[in-house]
Amino acid sequence: MDQRTARRAAGLSPASAQSPVPADKLLHSGNSGFTIARSAQLKYEHRDEGRKLFADVIAYMNQSDLNGASFYFYEEAFGKKDRVHWLIHWKTPNDYAISLHMVDHDEKMIDLLESDRVVTDASAGVWGRAVVEGSVQERILVPQHGLVHEEDDHDAGDLWVEPAKLQTGRPDSELLHSANSLLTLHRVGQATHEFRKEARLYAFAWQNEVNRKLPGRATSFLYEETFGVMDRLHWLVHLKDFDAYQELLELERTDKDFRALGERQFIGDSKGGGNWGRSYVPGSIEDTLLIPHQLDPGE
Question: I want to staple 244 with a disulfide (CB 3.0 to 4.6 A). Which of 134, 183, 221, 240 is the partner?
């Protein structure tokens, strides 16, 4: 029984169920060179058609050989109704050009994107009619590096930068990631420019506590937003199940090491001192909980 079959038997399927690629060959949040985090708001009247269309597009992209790229489709929990998300993992930015060529020239892809899908609305077949205008957003996430190890310690190989899994110091067999977790908490925070280094040090310290206290239950990776807003940081915290999500919440609320982390002085006396709170723009830390889209039996 492979990883995807075992998970499906337990209930919800992880995002790896959306790809025919064997689990040990998949690109994911832990081993990729960079990630596109994409989101879109579906129109309520076309929510079913929109989900079906995007599931079909994801399936076709995953079965195509785009230099190993992986495409995962998620639902948003506890947030906006019918807002959907993708995590798209690549080795290098150059690989993105392969997908652009596919969208422009591959006949099946063109048919998926342009043929009638919204059958109850005349001339509303193209994918854009199922999506609220201006709601599609993309952020480029690159694994944060340089704070926990010397940059020359590892060879990135054919990846653009060293993968996020090197942040944890744990073997691959213990890691949860975007392909094998049942929940992904996407946390975003805006570091202040003045205390940008201190914000990253806190981000790593918080992450290290999660990875140390919840092995096999939660794995956190830290990313820098590239080609976007300067000093906006992203965590992808991958959780085994809903119980693990509750354990994470309890950890932040009751664990003595986490409480000490909140009180630790991250800003030096020469800069006025202070805990982690001074290093982030107030109100900028936001959590979105993602659940892998569950394929219908016929998909």
Answer: 240
